Amino acid sequence: MKPANNHGIKRIFRATGFSMKGLKAAWIHEAAFRQELMLAVVMLPVAFLVDISTMERLMLILTLFIVLIVELLNSAIEAVVDRVGSEIHHLSGQAKDIASAAVFMSLALCGITWLVVLLPLLV
Known about the structure:
Belongs to the bacterial diacylglycerol kinase family. Its EC number is 2.7.1.107. It is a multi-pass membrane protein. It is found in: Cell inner membrane. Pfam families: DAGK_prokar. By secondary structure, the chain is mostly helical. It has a single domain (about 30-120), classed as Helix Hairpins, CATH 1.10.287. Helices cover about 85% and strands about 0% of the residues. It contains 4 helices and no strands. The protein has helices at about 10-30, 30-50, 55-85, 90-120. It is flat. The model has no long low-confidence stretch (mean pLDDT about 95).
């Protein structure tokens, strides 16, 4: 049930707190999120150090965030599926596989974008 006084600035602060709690949970419980976040921490400075246009820089940074966002959604889907039940069901496996495929696609998008933007600088 929703809290009665959940509006205005109070709602924003509560939502921010829940978001921080979610990020902490992902960091503690999800190895893939930790790995992708560390990769983003390493790659983000590269996006600022290379001589590229502002739009290219934005594309590099956005793809890093897309990977993290999709991984968070994947982790949330896995948690809900696991919460529903531990018995093996084809729809549970399908949900997890589709969420995993979304992470794969975001990683592919990130890799292709970084390759297309940075390859001309390397040749």
